[in-house]
Write a structure and sequence with these properties.
The protein is built from 3 helices and 2 strands; from the N terminus they run ααββα. By secondary structure, the protein is an alpha+beta fold. The chain has a domain at 28-79.
Length: 90
């Protein structure tokens, strides 16, 4: 009786191991694509689960927004300096 249980256990475990999926599913690929897209747009991304759904939260720091604004101002200043004024004494 014990030998039958042992043989059944071995056969069942081999069946489960051989049927287990180890490849990436389409859901995993979609999740990685979403994360890659958000990482490009945000400073960092966190995930949260609400009612069984995964939610991605995009965090942007205010320091990066200020830098972008200052860069625009510097470009405007450079363009203003490049335009020479015409003398009015002609």
């Amino acid at each position: 009786m014990n030998q039958k249980k042992l043989v059944n256990l071995v056969i069942l475990s081999l069946l489960v191991i051989s049927c287990a999926s180890t490849g990436e599913s389409s859901l995993e690929k979609e999740r990685k694509a979403k994360l890659a897209k958000l990482r490009a747009e945000c400073d960092f991304v966190t995930t949260d689960y609400v009612q069984g759904q995964e939610i991605f939260i995009c965090h942007k720091s205010s320091a990066t927004r200020i830098k972008k604004k200052n860069d625009d101002l510097v470009v405007d200043e450079v363009q203003e300096k490049e335009i020479p004024e015409k003398p009015s004494n002609e």
